[in-house]
Amino acid sequence: MPDGPQFELGWEEWLALPDLGLPAIKAKIDTGAKTSALHASVIEPFGPVTSPQVRFLIQPDPNNPALEVTCSAPVVDRREVTSSNGETELRYVIETDVEMGGRRWPIQLTLTNRESMTYRMLFGRGAMQPDMVVDPNESFHMPELSYKLYKGLPKKKPVKRPLRIALLTREPNNYSSRRLVEAARKRGHVIETIDTARCYMQIGTLDPQVHYDGQALPRYDAVIPRIGAKITDYGMAVLRQFSNTGAVCLNEAGAIGRSRDKLLAQQLLARAKIAMPVTAFAHSPKDTKDLIGLVDGAPVVLKLLTSTQGRGVVLAETRKAAESLVDAFRGLDANFLVQEFVEEAAGADVRAFVIGNKVVGAMKRQAQKGEFRSNLHRGGTASSVRLTADERETARAAAKVLGLSVAGVDLLQTRDGPKVLEVNSSPGLEGIENASGKDIAGQIIEHLERQVRPLSSDRETTLRSNRRINVN
User: Fold this and answer.
1) What is the pTM of this model?
2) Mind telling me which HAMAP family this protein's record contains (predicted)?
């Protein structure tokens, strides 16, 4: 026994596990047990082999099973533990800090289901500090806590916990993908890039799954869709399936569909009275002249409904050129828009980057000489710009109308105020980050952190049946 003052514990004590988001838990102090144990259900390992992690659900109050907290922690070991009834169990071992009596120190805990036990935590002698002694005849020598401390937790800043994130992309090495992976890992999350086209699905009511390379993918907390225009329909189906598994999708499939359908997007924006260039729509009109007249004549811009990054967008500077282009599109049996050309914009537009109904960055894009399209993929240049209050509100409203949590809203600056040119559901990050100097990728990950909800205990059966976890 060490010399000096002793830190005396009762045989039961209140303590806190702050890194797990547990401000109060009642533990049995048991010097007969070397290993400490924490109640855990829905135990779900994840992450790479080199730094594995585990997520689990705990009900800290034995008398209130409705109180549930989701916890995550790094795995330090898997260990066989023999319980007091003689049963041996292979358990995950985590390390976390404990707070008791004004002290804080790291301890190791094994995770096991203690649902039938009086105490949600067993505090073994291996977790005790050298000057600690236990009075087996007394309880609660430490300051008393209460489960009432959980009452305000949802309103407080959420406890940071590792998320498992899927990045749906066919271009894992482009700037946007690399930045999102970097930002997620920097904040302690596990993120995997998944080729959208290689996913296939098992559709069922009990256990919806997404398969990849011959096996079911693990459960993800969140999915970031970077779906190419060529596979929009299939990509949306894959995204809906991920949503069915309980994953939070950065942008929902329906919102992506609305943004990709230029006609639908224009109709929804018009119904919401959001200003935009005058637009006409046609498939194969016989009255070419009337169609052009609907947008007050040449010059006009013609856009294929499937155009992206400036491709399929053509400027007709004269009525004759416009009529020839309409006839050409008619010959292709294509759906297209005819839109007024806003000459005062002088080949420039503004992209406002919206995350969670907030404009977090903006840039002005200027077309190169002799080009009216300001897309960076077409040689345009980007510079920082300060938006007006009207421009910010217009960008927020446009993203909200289409249901997008993250969007690049392209605006034309006119004498009549901002006009929405297009709303992009998978906006690139390179131009906006370089022009604004802001960590847009990091803000996207922060937004996901706020959207992910805790696991619920009704997922335990599903998770137990899905232990075939593929980690790279």
Assistant:
1) 0.65
2) RimK
